[in-house]
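Subject: Interface between my chains keeps coming out wrong

I've been trying for a while to get a sensible model of this assembly. When I model each chain on its own everything looks fine, but I need the whole thing in one frame so I can look at the contacts. Pasting all components below, labels as-is. Any help appreciated, I'm running out of ideas.
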Amino acid sequence: MSSTPTPAGSLLTATGLHKAYGPTPALDGASFSVHPGEVVAVMGPSGSGKSTLLHCLAGIVTPDSGTITYDGRDLAGMSDAERSALRRGEFGFVFQFGQLVPELTCVENVALPLRLNGVKRKEAERRATAWLQKLEVDGLADKRPGEMSGGQGQRVAVARSLVTNPRVLFADEPTGALDSLNGERVMELLTEAARGANAAVVLVTHEARVAAYSDREVVVRDGRSRDMEYTR
Amino acid sequence: MTLLDDRPTRTAPAPTRPGLGGRLRDLGLGIRFAVSGGREGWIRALLTAVGVGLGVALLLGAASVPTFQQERDARGDARQLGVGTDDRLKPGDRTMLAVDASSEYRDVTIGGYLLRPEGAHPPLPPGVDKLPGPGEMVVSPALDQLLHSAEGKLLKERYDYRTVGTIHDSGLDNPFDLYLYVGSDSIKDGTDTSRIDHFGMNYPKEPMDPVLIVLIVLACIVLLVPVAIFIATAVRFGGERRDKRLAALRLVGADVPMTRRMAAGETLFGTLVGLVLGVVFFLAGRQLLGVVEIWRLSAFPSDFVPVPALAVLILVAVPLASVAVTVFALRSVVIEPLGVVRSGRVRGRRLWWRLPVPVVGVALLLASGPGDTLGTRGVVQISAGIAFTLIGLVLVLPWVVEATVRRLRGGPVPWQLAVRRLQLSTDGGSRAVAGITIAVAGGIALQMFTVGINDDFNKKTGQDPSRAQLGASAGFASGELAERMVTEFGATKGVRSVIGTVDSWASRTGAKPDADGILASVSVSVGSCSTLRELAKVDSCRDGDVFRVEGAENAGVDDELKIAPPGAKLDVGDPAVRWTVPADTRTVHSRRDPGGHYFGGLLVTPGALDVRELGNASTSAQVQVDQSVPDVLEYVRNTGFAINPGMHMYVYQTTQRDSEYASIRSGLFTAAALTMTLIAASMLVSQIEQLRDRRRLLSILVAYGTRRSTLAWSVLWQTAIPVVLGMAVAVTGGLGLGWLMLRMVDKPVTDWFLFLPLAGVGGATIAAVTLLSLPPLYRMMRPEGLRTE
Amino acid sequence: MSIGHTLLGLLESGPRHGYDLKRTFDETFGHDKPLHYGQVYSTMSRLLKNGLVEVDGIEAGGGPERKRYAITDAGITDVQRWLATPEKPEPYLQSTLYTKVVLALLTDRDAAELLDAQRSEHLRLMRALTERKRKGDLADQLICDHALFHLEADLRWLELTAARLDKLAAEVRPS
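Reply #2:
Try treating it as a single job with all components included. I did that and got this:
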């Protein structure tokens, strides 16, 4: 269905991905690529394999077959520890909900990825506070996730995903649990921050208005991908 | 009155006052939920049931202890030799001679008798169908097994008789009892021999020692409170999920009391299944005690029958208590139609009502002096003091945990995760840890107390094992035996040297008892020159010499020598032999003998006194062995048994520990360890439950590249912080309590570090809970958790 | 959109000149389609005739464009009535798209193909609108949002239709 282009200068490229959970194939020959500073929307009906594609690209799940190349390195060939280190150091993640550690304060939540990377607590929290400011939630620094609204929590999550200055930001339905106004603001802040840092964004969404924040879209259907820019 | 009335009446949506039927219906509905709640519901019910079951099994076990004790004592009494009420039985048709055939083998003790019927109708020992003939024996199954194993090879040489039968359970103390009866045609009436006409002896039961009562009270609190805490924890397994389900019921119109009753119903179901499991566990456990020996503890399953009243109490009280706990726990939870609000614990725990409880306990203990242990009032006061102190510790602990955790800050990521988690809710952690605390504190106090009392039993014997390791004695005088002992022990493998003496006493010929009826006498020991040199500082010695030995540990002994100056005429033994102290008798100084004693009196060589004529004397040997020879003691014992089965043999040790107290201590340790295992199990279940609730979060943390070790450490800290705090409270409380208790019996604290083994068990608990949480943790850290929605 | 009511509404905040009215209108509502001055003039004279506005004054040396208009009490009542009356709901049926989807299915073509292409086209416009919204002021945002929601609704309707017709087609011709 799709040609498998590996455009020059792409940061993260996947070709011919297959992945099955039990007898059901989630990915059936999907391909993907993203450039630095580019926001790519992954669209498609629910159950089409969008999230599985994201999990494969991020090295959370290993595909049954196919290749994933990140910055010239083969992701599928890496050990679990190497992929974990990659996710800690160079990737950022925003999910739909339930991603903040409920017992940590906001600033501690945001500082967490830095601390996992071995940054000292003081320094990590200083940088976390700066990101909370950028996302306009610095007033919540000492609050726990249970004490704030969904939109505020999601902004904190975006701050956390960006605090390590990741080169790729993975966002899986980041506005799924938010109303339009909050969703929009979160998308604006997310894309602005990512573009400002020249980070690539892989944005899984089923909402066209959210996808409108992307530079181009990839449609996933029945485990196969269709890159709307390159197939044209 | 009209047709209109036939319409179904609509009940008003106003709150209906439930009758008893309504309440029961709600309870039943709760039970239905538990039964039909799908896999989740079953797992929850099963967890509760297993937890309650373990608790109930332990309670039933505790309730069986009186029966167990009674049955065992009864069988013990039944196999005592029945020597009759008369001073001396005459030989007859129904009499039998018996000699103690017990001996030690490595670290076990074998009991039993040599029996020689004197008539056609001798009594049968309990559990024996037919008396063994000469050269035959009947043995307990455990002994039979030991004799036939490689381990029992040397023992087989000692009890070298033909096995003709086994002793049934009714004649045994426990399934691992090593016991035997040997038939004989050679034993003769004598000092070591008893003439009996029946088996069984009724010892009058002494009233229980008040100190023991205090010990038992403490033991009950230490063991039963954690079990209660464990059951209370078990009925809350899966509570959070249940609350969510109840919230859904609120949405469709259930009111708050209804949800409480339904929750109670669910718990009740789990508890009832738990009761059944408890009975099963109990029956299985007592069966296990019959086939496996744990820390020297074993029992016939049939001995383990709970006291009926206690059993009924357990089976009624546990379900009622579990319902009460559930309803009580729900008071701090508001189940709203749209979710669950935990209102409790927003304010910190208060200290003001917790602290007085242990303070009252300590005050009660401080107020009772050394003599108070004897009176009933004293016992009540002390028991109450102990109870208040221990329960007070449990009350203070949550406050300590909360206050400490609140002050913790910073640290590495795993520490931070754990601390923050504990700050949000210390409930679960401290509840389980409270059980550990009471078990450990009580265990420490008990150990200190028993060890302190043990000082009476734990005395230094003063024996010198570098010079002799074994003593042997027979209750009759025989120079020949003494010689045989010297030669045969001397020829035994691994024996370095032997001394052997015939011991008797002498008084001045014609002397009369003084006003108190005491006849002045002096010890007389007959032995070869080499033996005498071991007992006194003898320069030269030839057969025929006699020595007066001064310098015994007891100053009175030197005085006794006054009746035996050289040339004195003495009556030796009973019946007496006339003997004159030779004129050339020298006075020498005593020397510490291998048994650790200083001999005082007359030392005589065989040439100077013919021992064959001595009556009412005993023959003894002290054997020095080379301990590098494996099983050297068993070779010596075998030799001793071969010389005379009735010979009493004992091993010298620097300290001699009272075995009963040793078994109390090992029992205590076992119980405390068992309790902690139980608590650890409940901590593990809560931990895994918590992890399951956080499956998604764990997956997300993994997506972020969190190392497994980071989360593993956080799980460790989450267990370790409350346990360490609990152990600190427990050790402090336990040492304090132990000190107070020893103070009451006027004994010093002998060992402040007794808590180390129990603290070790606490550490092991932390490690076990963490390690066992790791597989589920790792399983839940798989990325599949991201796909749940 | 009723230009007359819009201009009346603008006058409610105070008297204005005709050119002033045009500029404000363009700035606030007329991004897609600026108003011609002639439209302002003809509208104002109609309102004047109906007594909804009055001439407040004429600037010295000015032509007819230099008239200053003020709203009358009748005018205020009219604006009030207009605002209070709901717009007639329009069955916003995308007849062209519908025709295309049905045609695609009837001719054994892949409706998903058509859908993806249409989505892509929609997204292209939506990206532009989003971009403009980001750079613009509140008025821009409100207007762009309206367009974005409509475009999204189009897409969702199209997706649903395609899915339903797919099923329908499968039922009709089981292969």
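Reply #3:
Confirming on my end. Chain A touches chain C through 18 residues (CB under 8 Å).
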